[in-house]
Write a structure and sequence with these properties.
With about 190 residues, the chain is mostly helical. Helix content is about 70%, strand content about 0%.
């Protein structure tokens, strides 16, 4: 099991290097400069992967379907998180899953807007009446539900990566601190 993970990781690293080389002197490089080659965008460490997953999940659950990859790339560059992980995470909302997710978000948003003071004030403040009002109200429900889903999923993704990463490090012995007194062997279980 451990060797398979190491082999996959080495393959992934070589693919990352090829991708970085392909970006050199391209349109994106000319537009964004050397920021796209910053080490945090391509590194596979706990902070970068957890942040990349959180960013990808947050963007995935926002109703910005045609622009998600672009928003995620810009966010990864600005926040300094893993670009590949964030791009992979946004595919949770794909053409097959987007409609059920957005319909559930509308239901959650409608519930929150109709049963909270802020939602009631928003609809009264903007006097959402008529056909335009109905579109605006449904958009408010969609965005409210999507932002709830996005926030919760980003937090859960970030926490899950940190827990799994810490458990893995602990299990492999890389996270354990072995206190030794010079000249005294380490006792099992201590």
């Amino acid at each position: 099991m451990g060797m398979a993970i190491k082999t996959r990781f080495k393959q992934w690293q070589s693919k990352q290097e090829r991708m970085k080389h392909g970006l050199r002197n391209g349109r994106l490089h000319r537009l964004l400069g050397d920021r796209i080659f910053h080490s945090s965008l391509w590194s596979f460490d706990q902070r970068s992967v957890a942040g990349g997953l959180a960013l990808g999940l947050f963007v995935a659950f926002t109703p910005t379907f045609p622009f998600q990859m672009l928003l995620c790339a810009i966010g990864a560059i600005l926040l300094g998180v893993n670009l590949s992980v964030s791009q992979a995470a946004i595919w949770i909302t794909n053409p097959l899953t987007a409609i059920p997710i957005y319909l559930a978000a509308i239901k959650v948003g409608r519930f929150l807007c109709q049963h909270t003071l802020i939602g009631g004030l928003t609809t009264v403040f903007f006097s959402l009446e008529g056909r335009t009002g109905k579109v605006m109200r449904e958009s408010l429900y969609l965005w409210t539900g999507c932002l709830v889903f996005a926030g919760v999923s980003a937090i859960l993704g970030y926490v899950a990566v940190n827990i799994v990463w810490s458990v893995y490090r602990w299990r492999t012995g890389k996270g354990r601190r072995r206190e030794r007194t010079p000249g005294r062997p380490v006792q099992p279980g201590s």
